[in-house]
């Protein structure tokens, strides 16, 4: 296994770029749904 593969093998999921982008996306969805009427929030923000 080369050095790059070893580093990726020991990398935690929180270091993955896709995980970081998903967290940003989740926060944007949460921010947008805060302004929804209560009846339209069902299962979107819990």
Tag the structure with descriptive keywords.
46 residues, mainly alpha, 2 helices
Description:
The chain has one domain (12-46). With 46 residues, the chain is mainly alpha-helical. The protein is built from two helices and no strands. The mean pLDDT is 81. The protein is rod-shaped.
Per-chain topology:
Elements: H1 3-9, H2 17-33
In summary, what is this structure?
With 46 residues, the chain is mainly α. Helices cover 52% and strands 0% of the residues.
Assembly annotation: single chain
DSSP strand content: under 5%
Global morphology: rod-shaped
Question: What count of domains describes the coordinates?
Answer: 1
Structural class: mainly alpha
